[in-house]
Amino acid sequence: MDISDLDLVTLADAYQRLENPSLLIRLSSAVGMPLEAVTRELGKKAPDVVVDAVSSSAQKAIEAVLQNSMRSVADDGQTSASPRLHTAAAMSTGAVAGFFGISSLIVELPLTTGIMFRSIADIARAEGESPQDPETILNCMQVFAMGSRESEKDDAAETSYYGVRVALSKTLSDALQFVASQGLGNAGAPVLIRLISTLAGRFGVVVTQKAMAQTIPVIGAIGGGLINTVFISHFQDMARGHFSIRRLERLYGVDVIQGAYQRLKRDDASG
User: What are the CA-CA distances from residue 81 to residues 1, 31, 84, 208, 251 (Å)?
Assistant: First the structure.
């Protein structure tokens, strides 16, 4: 089945979003700081206080999202996503937390992550998925593991979009089987603990960049609210790419879309 020209454009747009994470670019644009300088600053080793805060807050945030996901979203019949409302909410939590520095991350991040999850689920719904379906919920959570490339030195096979999906496939499949029979009520089940830990580890890479950005005077000066706006926009991009590809996979088949995606990747590498 040939992919239509319109859907090829959709696929190319998804490819650009997923293979070129925009967090650093957005931060650079927000403060008028050269991208190379932002990349260099955020590539420095994070202090222990940041590492500890990110580790505990990322784990807590993913666990809270899993526990609250079923009652956080609803299928209200809308046909398009509404990202601005969620972005404004994330900006508000960041603005308040910005007054208290890195110590506030363990309180602020679960709130911001919950807002981001609802925005991700809203995007999934707009692409034809049911926010109440356990598979959709787990795919929404998978978005937190995307776009976490730290540098060009990272293994492309592990940080590329389909590479992340393959890496997470067993953990997500086991979690889906459990949720289908037991529900999402028990986040302490071993299979869900593994899921939370895996997602939190990848999510923590981007959270570390967010936390480190706030320690750079020229970036921190724009305030926690604007930094959170950049943060949620990054994951909204990941969600738009991911769920548009899932829609195309339902239409054309996984193998067809993955093959077309890999051709885009080869063309990008050779061009």
Answer: 29, 28, 9, 28, 20
What's the rounded Cα separation, in Å, for the pair 91 and 146?
Answer: 21
Rounded distance between C-alpha atoms, residue 34 and residue 133, angstroms: 42
Q: Is 78 helix (H, G, I), strand (E, B) or coil?
A: coil
C-alpha–C-alpha distance, residues 236 and 122, integer Å: 10
The three-state secondary structure class of 271 is coil
What are the pLDDT digits (tens) for 227-265? 778 888 889 999 999 999 999 999 999 999 999 999 999
pLDDT digits (tens, 9 = 90+) for 34-61: 878 878 877 788 888 888 888 889 999 9
Question: Which spans in the chain are helix H?
Answer: 5-19, 23-31, 35-42, 48-72, 83-97, 105-126, 134-142, 156-159, 161-182, 190-213, 217-220, 224-252, 254-270
Q: Closest Cα partner for 205 from 149, 163, 155?
A: 149
Nearest CA-CA partner of 124 in 167, 91, 86: 86
> Which residue in this structure is represented by tokens 């890496």?
167
Structure tokens at 233: 């926009």
DSSP-assigned letters across all residues of 181-215 = HH-SS-TTSHHHHHHHHHHHHHHHHHHHHHHHHTT
83 pLDDT band, cuts 50/70/90, is low
Residue 115 CA to residue 86 CA, distance in Å, equals: 6
